[in-house]
Amino acid sequence: MFKRMRLRETTRPDNEKFFVASQWQLFRWKFLKHRLAVLSVVVLALVYLGALFAEFIAPYDPYAFQPTLVYAPPQAVYLFDEQGQFHWPPFIYPLKKTVDPVTYRPEYTEDRSRQLPLELFVQGDPYKFWGLWEGDRHLFGVRGGVYSPLGKDSLGRDLFTRIVYGSRISLSIGLIGVLIGFFSGLLIGGLAGLLGGVVDIVIMRITEIFNAVPTLPLWMALSVALPQNWTVEENYLAITIILALFGVVSGASRTVRGKFFALKEEDFVVAARLDGAGNVRLIMKYLFPNFLSHQIADLTMSIPGMILGETSLSFLGLGLQAPAISWGVLLQEGRSVKTLAENPWLFIPAVFVVVTIIAFNFVGDGVRDAADPYARI
Amino acid sequence: MLAYILKRLFLIIPVLLVVSLLSFMIIQLPPGDFVDAYIRGERGRGRTISSEEEASLRVRFGVNDPFLVQYGRWIAGIVRGDLGVSLALKESVSKIVAERLPLSALISLLSFLLVNLIAIPIGMLSATRQYSVADYFFSILGFLGMGVPQFIFAVVMLWGIYSFTGQASVGATSPEFVGQPMSMAKFLDLISHLWLPALIAAATGTAGTIRIMRANLLDEMEKPYVIVARAKGLPRRKLLYKYPFRMALNPFVVGLAGVFPGLVSGELMVSITLGIPTLAPVLLQALEMQDVETAGSLVFIISTLSVVGILVSDILLAIVDPRIRYE
Questions:
Q1: Maximum CA pair distance of chain A?
Q2: What is the reported pTM?
């Protein structure tokens, strides 16, 4: 509370601090005022941390399957047992499987005779953290049984584990794609803006055309054209580049070019040029800082599109393929509406997709407002 | 006006040229060519093809010709309305397109109308009653609409339909109309099936457009001329429709051009998920079977649909704002 008061004090236009604040300080102050954006940053930090420490946070190995627990539903966590007695740590009941005599569908009930306490830092499936360090401790889990917080899939693999591992691909595709978009947009837009003339006209016509083409069919066709014998990593990289090339680059080049044109004639740029600043210095020192924040806002807004692109492609079975784990690949299991209706938890990855996209939208909104020098604080 | 429309029509040619080049590149990208595929198929049937025969096949299908010559042949075929035969679907691509393109176009057009019909009034309501309960409600709905991918929306809808009626797809017409010639009854039946996919495809665009409309109108209502008009005694409602509303509509119609490619992409995902016989499921099928010839042609046609949509909204803009054509 105290801190927020101080923030409001500082950002009052008549405060001295406001006038001496650097560009980035102003940016931060304005951003912190957008509550939803700040909340979204926290949400995104959590999912990205999950992706970073997937091996430790996920309770199981993402490929370990349990044929006895095919399509097991999510398990509830209890604090009170049937007698109403309080337990700490919380516990779960292991699942008991029966097969429906008519449909042969497995049915699961909780085995109330046994309680498995939830524990922190339990020993479980061995893993190699970031492919470097070996370990077998997991953040949470149970001993002497199985605990699937979000259920199991068609092969009896732990869905929560797979969502956590899948976030690595789904979340990094947006970031890498945006980095590609950022640098190539800077290069292409900068060239068009700086050189002008024919180069500008040609580049702008091409980006215009790219904006007019619906991206999805193009993505679909290009991802199928990838060689079949590529490894998961090569495929991942290629799809990221395809998504970035036909999604982010043309938009980014257009904004950079526009900003270059707008700023080129400004007095401070002309003065710097007359002072003998070379092209590189002019760009890095005078033009770049002027539109960097705007560019960052634009790119934050384009991350959800990339995530969505990967998810849609993989959902259709055209993007990443089975041994790879991404949110889209996980959603493939829900392509048949019958399977989905019988095992609704298979749709949980979609919740992660939606939450991430909305969070990025809010952050982009906040960054855009904060990057606008004319916005009232 | 006519001159402007003609100019726009003329400008569309280079765009379509580049789009067609891109589509053709997709066809050429995978290793191997049509003859390789043909030989593989024949070998599968136990027939061996000598190297002389292979060479003559290559000459006959012109696969050794330079890229531009092959492209020229392909595009000439498209202009004549001949899209070749789909290897995967064993049917002429032109026939498939003729059957399914109207449905694709109809859904995209319906979504386009829905985006406008929903977004403009809601955007106005949000702007004129800023920070009211309705404004907050639609703002939250808008952010949700932008965040929920169309295919997830479609899957949830289908899930709902399935659990209530037991149907696993929506389809385009009721069974009794399949194969029937177009009539008023069939058209109405079509609309009654298609409003749902159109609405889903429109969701993202609507959410974005509400935000734009609201922001534009809010900007406009703060301008001095509005205050002057109010001070002179112009009624609030009349003022709103006569000036700020029309001004706010301009950048809005420009934005609509950008909505169209999104609608076409949205239509693809929604139709595939809901099982509506538009071009989308055929494209997916062709891609799954590595039938790049068909896929390339379909990508070209779908992209053309979107380019035409942009053209329509540009012409709309010229009607709304007389200043545009002098730019």
A1: 88
A2: 0.83
